[in-house]
């Protein structure tokens, strides 16, 4: 994570300069302290508030300037632990910056940023633990016990947290234990693809309250699909007994590439009419709710992390196989996104420089040799007997080949083997580049065939992972491979709303 180490704080300047160039210099001095993003508010000229030097991302650092050219406040996100990130919001009055021409109201971020950040810190700490006390929260986050007590009282009043008894006595006063209230809030996740649209409703703990799957988007215009989603949305809420008041929002995900900031999708796996379509904004208008758009593999990774593991992986990847092959990466609890949330496209890594031309523009992409459609195409070329099921979709035929391979059909096993080898190649590359300690297999492609791939991946990692003498890389199945992307879409909304980790975007 690109945050400063604890203790590396900006020093107050003796005087404030009074030109835009000096303002830019002041901002540059802060940016060189390794903050991953910056937001400037108040009276600075527009050309200093945005642009390629200071991309408009979710703020890790906020500078607020008043009309006298002095900064009102700065807030700093600090990583205190290398094992699990905890975030502390600090405000230092008197750090001076510069404002040139322009005017406007002062954006006072001091109390608001501090209060919201602290609340999210505490809520995330409670959600991360089966049970935790106020004292343990204070020790883990660096907040004062008084601040924690006040925040917890507000969370209990809001119904987000509940007291669940006492810890064992250690000689003093028994500590009251806290727990998240799973039913307090919920979110809806939607995964759209050519072959199906999956809807899920989950609670704050990641538990599924309801699920529905409808026909794929086919070649329908996105406006039609948005209307269908809005209709199914209300039916699903009624089915699970959820209210709009309890919803924090809706996440919708699809195959990449996507533009996370613009809220658009439209990769090669989607019809051309989707390219540039403002999906996030149109769906938000149709539902009257907040909507997030992201890549299916990234969502699946966040969903797996949000649902929890036996331990907290520092570097974790979700290998996702549906109609294509991709991956989502989570580092210290934060999704590794890239510029527009298209990081992890392992399916478009070249494994044959003289190979087939891919729709992405590359040559010899892994996906061309490993995706379910590639396996089915080879089966058709080789005259594989589908026993009358030839008219099914590629995913259905792929599942049938996988079932026969599991039953030791040599022809089916021979079709799966090259795909498994290519996926294993991609897994080793991903593990070496990111230094992973956990890989999870998710997506409809692994729902039946997972057992045929996991052994190949484990064998390749054990022989060829660069840091294998330093640590192992665990490879496991997703708990819900077919619904992983939809569950992840719901988790993205919950994390973005309730947990501070979502504010960090690794680039």
Short account of what is shown:
Helices cover 36% and strands 19% of the residues. It is built from 14 helices and 17 strands.
Output the keywords:
507 residues; alpha/beta; 5-stranded mixed sheet
Account of the protein in words:
By secondary structure, this protein is an alpha/beta fold. The protein has helices at 20-31, 46-49, 110-127, 134-141, 145-157, 222-240, 279-287, 296-307, 366-370, 372-381, 394-406, 410-434, 445-464, 484-498; strands at residues 38-41, 61-65, 71-79, 87-91, 132-133, 161-166, 176-180, 186-192, 196-203, 208-215, 247-254, 291-295, 315-321, 325-331, 334-335, 438-442, 474-477. It is 36% helix and 19% strand. The strands form four sheets. The protein has a five-stranded mixed sheet with strand order 10-9-8-11-12. It is globular.
Topology:
Layout: H1 20-31, E1 38-41, H2 46-49, E2 61-65, E3 71-79, E4 87-91, H3 110-127, E5 132-133, H4 134-141, H5 145-157, E6 161-166, E7 176-180, E8 186-192, E9 196-203, E10 208-215, H6 222-240, E11 247-254, H7 279-287, E12 291-295, H8 296-307, E13 315-321, E14 325-331, E15 334-335, H9 366-370, H10 372-381, H11 394-406, H12 410-434, E16 438-442, H13 445-464, E17 474-477, H14 484-498
Parallel strand pairs: 1-2, 8-11, 11-12, 13-16, 16-17
Antiparallel strand pairs: 2-3, 3-4, 5-7, 6-7, 8-9, 9-10, 13-14, 14-15
Helix pairs in contact: 3-5, 4-5, 6-7, 8-14, 10-11, 10-12, 11-12, 11-13, 12-13
